[in-house]
Amino acid sequence: MTAMISFVNDEPLVGILLKSVFVENILLSFFLGMCSYLAVSKRVDSAVGLGIAVIFVQVLTVPMNWALQTYVLGEGALAWAGFPDSDLGYLQFLTFIASIAAVVQVVEMAVDKFSPKLYAALGIFLPLIAVNCAILGGSLFMAERKYSFSQSVVYGIGSGAGWALAIVSMATIRWRMRTAHVPAPLRGLGITFITTGLVAMAFMTFSGI
Amino acid sequence: MQFLRNLVEKQKQLYHAKDSKFHKVWPLFDAFETFLFAPDHRTGPQRVQVRDYVDLKRVMNTVIIAMLPCLLWAIWNTGAQHFHAIGAMIGSGKLLAANYVPGWLQSLLAPNVAAPTAVDTVVFGLQRMLPILIVSYGVGLGIEMLFSVIRNEEVSEGYLVSGMLIALIVPASIPLWQLAIGVAFAVVLGKEVFGGTGMNVFNPAMLVRAFLFFAFAGQMSGDMVWVAGNNSPTGVPGSLIDGFSQPTALAVVKAATTDASAALTHAFSHQDLFFGNIPGSAGEMSKLCVLLGAFWLVFTGVGSWRVMVGGVLGLLASAFLMKTASGAETGPISLLPWEHLLCGGFLFGIVFMATDPVSSPETSVGKWIYGALIGFVTILVRTINPAYPEGTMLAILLMNAFAPGIDHFVVAANIKRRMKRS
């Protein structure tokens, strides 16, 4: 019971924010959340909408999963309830996915109520956020890096904003490329993958900061 | 002139008609014809009717003229830096003048190694720059022509500028096979798959440099590559002068542990930095030549002054803010704002690469934003990213990725404003 917390992450908040938006952009350096990124980046306004939805969901789920991790799942986390030897780490995936699904359900109902137009534009992709790798990835990185509560809030904002930045810039690039004479076999997904690779190369500007 | 015109007309019969002998390579013929004479094509009745004699080829030639001072200086200074290094090595006893191995061009016109003349300097510069230019143009144009023949399109002229730019932004010691791979990567994956000239999202010349920078870091960065040596131009690696290291101005700044401004002026005088008597990538060295090019581009209306002014102001403002906000007296952050202009390739990048009309925003407001952000990101990398000394290349690539976004939101804001007015 002595070495309950072996490592405390003491990164400054500004550093985490910059890092999660630019240096370790969840899409362009980890390539998480590619499916909805490729599918929804066809139109700029739905990309903006989905980007905002991801930021919103990420800001809610990362701190929520932080609470679950700290008070239920982690090693010795249940000490407050009288189980100092508990380790429910094997339930991590299951719990995180369930909590993400619950939050997405709430966000979906809220979007439907307050902006039916955005709801229609996002279509199937809003419920799909529930299985968006970027969202689960964000929570898992939070647990792995042992962020504190404030750090996980900032990381939620940063990783969501990084994803939104990537999808909006890709949507505008694809909008500009709508008249481009791309070779037939590469039209659509092919050229989008190539462009994503080049954008990821440009994002290496910040690697090392 | 008439003789040439007649010859072209006669040859045209062999290429133009659908069933003629060489119709398959019509795009190549068309490219050469429009290179020699301004095209007399008429548009069809359904299409736009206005046509200017200043077509893409003439615009590209204007840019090439703007780059000539830089190219000439690159040839001179590549030789000058080489003999400067050789002189230092002979002086310190590391090299005997008799052991100097002349290159392929120098074997025709043997240099006076101990006291090189102006001719020796130019000969060495040509010996390095000519193969680089030939590889850059040969590989790039070869791929472009192949694509136009297969896709049956006109050969476009965009590469005339890119080829020259590429030669000017790599170190003169670059191994030619690496250059060829970089050019092939950028032209195929950065340009042709997007549909060729005018369609690319990223500046192809910048892509070449970024590709080489990440793929062959050993030949693109560090203190050993900026002065070309004299190994065989096809040899590996590049052509370093063994054991001679010469950091660039920005490397000096990056390594500064005291006041960066003092460290910089200790290594290079402001005069040398401005006139270009310093080691660096082939074309970026002389700020004077870049300014000459900038005046020509703005005077002819080919390059956007908004991007250039926006970039310089963005760079100065961010450098000033970083220095003032951090209050740092030491390290790269303490360099005086205007000295940032004299170091590295920022001026070259903002004048020749950022103004590329294809990969930069189209709206006027967007151009200001675009230029300013390039300046800002450059300063960010130069001052707080320990990994790279120079940020211009990656700043321009990054802003290329955001250029359509800048345009989109500028247009959206404009629409919103005008809707409100009515």
Mind explaining what this structure looks like?
The complex is a heterodimer of chains A (209) and B (422). Chain A has 209 residues and is mainly alpha-helical. Chain A is 65% helix and 0% strand. Chain A is globular and about 65 Å long. The two termini of chain A are 37 Å apart. Chain B is mainly α. Chain B folds into two domains: 164 residues, no CATH class; 156 residues, no CATH class. Chain B has 17 helices and no strands. The longest helix of chain B is centred in the first third of the chain and has 36 residues.
Tell me the layout of helices and strands.
The complex is a heterodimer of chains A (209) and B (422).
Chain A: H1 13-23, H2 34-40, H3 44-73, H4 92-114, H5 116-122, H6 125-128, H7 133-144, H8 149-176, H9 189-202
Helix pairs in contact in A: 1-8, 3-4, 3-7, 3-8, 4-5, 4-7, 7-8
Chain B: H1 2-15, H2 26-36, H3 56-91, H4 118-151, H5 158-169, H6 176-190, H7 204-215, H8 217-220, H9 249-255, H10 260-267, H11 270-275, H12 287-300, H13 305-326, H14 337-342, H15 346-353, H16 364-384, H17 392-421
